[in-house]
């Protein structure tokens, strides 16, 4: 483990499987993991040439329209994949866009348009091709992929059978060694993808929902479990740096505490969170926040839509009533007594970004970044500009906005 990962230990927790816990007290803002993907694949359809030209097919940096023709390099064989530089194009040949993968993508694209494959099937086909390409070029990383948790039965029988048959009949001869390419292995790989893939997101916009540009398998980060009130959050800097994932602590935690991420924005209501976790990951959450919010439900499964609307209204009302109480309690040194009843209220006030359409999570800058005062400029809803100098600065993991932490 690197120095940045010394504060984490991988353990088995009954009922939760693999988990990462603090092996020492951790500080808010501390980087506890920097992880590189072993596999990346695009999040757009196989036949979407226009969309694929917006990104480098190797590092997934966004290609600015005015620079696409001037700087980018196309794959000489398929002419569909574009790269941000000759270096990326050269690196891709031996990794993310090998001759085998290039030929396979070209062949499967020709058939996909006539088969009218759904987007999900196209993305799963992309993943399988990328996974078998990994087996060809980096067997050790492929074994790491196979070692991750994942249940092939959660995929069902029809999807693996269809995709395996499609790849077998359409694509180039699968990579060696002989016997690796099988229906059973394809099903197992799809199970790994379903449970472990992280989305590399588009830059934040106040005027549009945030979309995924690529999916990646991060082997160490895959051991983080979910919590609806996480104590850590992920940052990525694809356009400015690379595809590494950086995980930072949101607040201080003691030794022995499990370190959890939220698998989606923390603003989602109870019913939406439970449905998404069950559909995408196969479990129901019983974290402290869910235990409280479950009591707000009328438990009427036949009136699910009405229940969600009612719960959203109740959450808003309770939030309005209790946020002020929680903040007042904290100011009087009594925040601990307010948190158990409504554990989400304090979290939302302090750690959720309030920028329009963001819903990101705030974490302090790494301790080494706050040894000297930082100038933070905040623009409020009335277009008033506030300039503050403070070493206690929070960064949003979605929009990148910096905010003074007035609670410290």
From TrEMBL:
Pfam assignment, any one: SET
Gene3D superfamilies in the record: 1.10.220.160, 6.10.140.2220, SET domain
Occurrences of domain SET (ranges): 6-264
Segments of skewed composition (Acidic residues): 298-333
Disordered: annotated span: 296-338
InterPro entries membership: ASHR2-like (IPR044238), SET_dom (IPR001214), SET_dom_sf (IPR046341)
Protein name in UniProt: SET domain containing protein
């Amino acid at each position: 483990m690197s120095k940045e990962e010394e504060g984490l230990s991988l353990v088995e927790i009954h009922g939760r499987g693999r988990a990462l816990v603090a092996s020492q007290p951790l500080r808010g803002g501390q980087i506890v993991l920097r992880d590189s993907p072993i596999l990346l694949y695009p999040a757009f359809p196989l036949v979407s040439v226009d969309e694929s030209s917006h990104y480098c097919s190797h590092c997934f940096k966004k290609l600015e329209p005015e620079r696409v023709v001037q700087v980018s390099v196309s794959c000489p064989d398929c002419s569909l994949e574009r790269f941000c530089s000759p270096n990326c194009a050269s690196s891709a040949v031996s990794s993310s866009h090998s001759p085998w993968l290039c030929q396979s993508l070209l062949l499967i694209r020709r058939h996909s348009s006539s088969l009218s494959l759904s987007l999900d099937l196209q993305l799963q086909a992309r993943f399988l091709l990328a996974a078998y390409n990994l087996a060809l070029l980096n067997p050790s990383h492929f074994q790491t992929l196979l070692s991750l948790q994942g249940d092939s039965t959660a995929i069902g029988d029809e999807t693996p059978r269809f995709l395996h048959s499609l790849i077998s009949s359409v694509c180039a001869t699968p990579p060696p060694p002989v016997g690796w390419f099988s229906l059973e292995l394809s099903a197992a790989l799809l199970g790994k993808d379903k449970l472990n893939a992280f989305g590399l997101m588009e830059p934040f916009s106040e005027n549009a929902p945030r979309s995924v540009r690529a999916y990646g398998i991060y082997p160490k980060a895959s051991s983080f479990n979910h919590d609806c009130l996480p104590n850590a959050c992920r940052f990525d800097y694809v356009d400015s740096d690379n595809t590494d994932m950086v995980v930072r602590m949101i607040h201080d935690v003691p030794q022995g505490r499990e370190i959890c991420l939220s698998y989606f924005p923390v603003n989602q209501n109870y019913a939406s969170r439970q449905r998404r976790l069950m559909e995408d990951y196969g479990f129901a959450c019983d974290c402290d926040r869910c235990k409280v919010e479950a009591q707000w439900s009328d438990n009427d499964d036949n009136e699910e839509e009405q229940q969600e609307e009612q719960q959203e209204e109740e959450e808003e009302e309770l939030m309005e009533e209790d946020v002020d109480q929680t903040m007042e309690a904290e100011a009087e040194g009594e925040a601990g007594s307010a948190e158990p009843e409504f554990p989400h209220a304090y979290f939302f006030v302090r750690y959720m970004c309030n920028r329009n359409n963001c819903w990101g999570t705030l974490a302090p800058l790494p301790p080494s970044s706050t040894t000297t005062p930082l100038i933070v400029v905040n623009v409020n809803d009335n277009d008033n500009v506030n300039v503050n100098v403070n070493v206690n600065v929070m960064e949003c993991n979605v929009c990148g906005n910096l905010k003074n932490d007035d609670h410290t």
